[in-house]
Design a protein that fits this description.
alpha+beta; Alpha-Beta Plaits; 3 domains; five-stranded antiparallel β-sheet; 13 strands
């Protein structure tokens, strides 16, 4: 209920951390498949990581409900790597929560629950999803639909929400340490060895699942500080502006990925779908760009890649394709959610060499082109830009306009000195135009006479 409500299992949810602590020194986790967290083990404390998509059953098998000498905990949130609960490795934030040590304030469970319900009625908090007795204390949980742990904006809002909840419940023993995003919680149904009681779910509200925006009306968020530092121009979003200030060309990673996909499809079409020798490379790179343009929607990217493979003269088996693109899938997700540095950055020169693209093929492509082809296209575009609709340059058009103006005034009977005053042209230039006009006129008359 905490991890999968409203989400598809195909989405990579990451690793959850399980830990247990025993009074004796010989405590061991049951022999279930999972990754041991052996980096910094405390005495009597054993922990293990489980990938929620592939090993959720292993997590269930690990929990010992009836073991009265074992304290068992699990992380609310999930992580990119096994064996860690560092905030820097957060993949998904699944809940807001508050841990209440009510025994330190001499408060009862019923009084605490009544106080929480009163805060909810006053619109200071939204209804909680779970209210759990942990043995000696209790905790309340507000489930959210998988917020991205690597987003700075999300983390900032999340911390403010956690602080707001803890501040409202200070008088009921809200644990300031336990409000951290990497804090584990006692698993309901297991025993609290100090109290000799089970942790129990006292209340569950199946409607209380939230988006981050749902908390905005309850929490007085701090205003963002105005950044007075000048923004550095990112090399990932090179926008060229002419002197007039208007955008001449918008170029960013997304539009580049889309153009790359179109080029790969066109190149395969030019080769009549016979890509033997480079079939695997085509599928791998094509799938990576599909993941980037579809914002890491795994199902959609796989569908497009399998469709492309089916058009090859000698396609791979579907299972082979899925095995081939696994690394591409992981890298795309890491670059999207963790850091751009984790992704693949294919240079144009690398792809030209990889696919052995010829100059004839480059004529039909947009971005998979050599520097020579790019230079030729730029020069051709500049040549066309210099000419008007009649195919004349600015200088040629001005020359024709001057000729027609001078001849028109000459035919009206104006002298050359008067024409010079009216047109601001030199006398010698006007004399040359009139001379050329008379020669053309004489040639025209001779032609008519013959």
């Amino acid at each position: 209920m905490l991890f999968f409500r409203g989400n598809e299992y195909s989405v990579d949810c990451g690793y959850v951390s399980y830990g247990s602590k025993s009074k004796n020194n010989e405590h061991q986790i049951p022999n279930v498949s999972g990754q041991n967290n052996n980096k910094k083990q405390e005495k009597n404390w054993v922990s293990k990581s489980f990938h929620l998509n592939s090993n959720l059953i292993g997590l269930y098998n690990c929990i010992e409900i009836n073991n009265k000498s074992l304290d068992q905990y699990m992380s609310f949130n999930t992580y990119y790597r096994a064996g860690t609960r560092k905030q820097g490795d957060l993949r998904q934030i699944n809940a807001f929560y508050v841990d209440l040590d009510i025994y330190t304030k001499k408060k009862s469970l019923k009084a605490t629950q009544r106080y929480l319900d009163n805060l909810i009625r006053k619109k200071l908090l939204p209804p909680y999803t779970f209210f759990v007795s942990s043995g000696r204390g209790c905790y309340a949980i507000w489930c959210v639909n998988h917020l991205q742990g690597k987003s700075r904006k999300v983390l900032k809002k999340t911390k403010q929400i956690q602080n707001h909840i803890c501040n409202l419940l200070k008088n009921y023993g809200s644990d300031a340490v336990a409000k951290a995003l990497d804090q584990p919680f006692r698993i309901p149904g297991t025993y609290n060895t100090k109290a000799g009681k089970r942790a129990e779910i006292l209340c569950y509200n199946e409607e209380a699942y939230y988006e981050l925006e749902d908390f905005f009306e309850f929490v007085p968020f701090e205003k963002d500080k105005v950044d007075t530092k000048p923004k550095r121009k990112s090399h990932l979003d090179p926008t060229t502006r002419p002197k007039g200030g208007k955008i001449k060309r918008l170029y960013n990673p997304y539009t580049l990925f889309v153009a790359r996909l179109q080029d790969i499809e066109k190149l395969i079409e030019l080769r009549n779908f016979d890509v033997r020798g480079s079939r695997n490379n085509f599928l791998f790179v094509y799938h990576y760009y599909q993941m980037k343009t579809k914002r890491c929607q795994i199902g959609a990217a796989r569908k497009e890649t399998i469709e492309l493979n089916s058009r090859f003269l000698e396609p791979l088996e579907e299972e082979e394709v899925l095995n081939l693109i696994q690394s591409s899938e992981n890298r795309a997700i890491m670059s999207e959610e963790v850091n751009q540095e984790h992704g693949y950055r294919y240079k144009t020169s690398t792809l030209l060499r990889l696919y052995d693209i010829t100059e004839e093929e480059e004529k039909h492509l947009k971005t998979l082109i050599s520097n020579k082809t790019k230079s030729n296209r730029r020069n051709e575009k500049e040549r066309k830009a210099r000419r008007n609709k009649e195919g004349l340059t600015k200088r040629e058009a001005q020359k024709i306009e001057n000729f027609n103006t001078v001849v028109d005034l000459f035919q009206q009977g104006y002298k050359q000195i008067d024409i010079a005053r009216k047109t601001n042209l030199s006398k010698s230039y006007i004399s040359q135009i009139i001379k050329e006009y008379r020669m053309n006129l004489k040639c025209s008359n001779n032609h008519l006479h013959v």
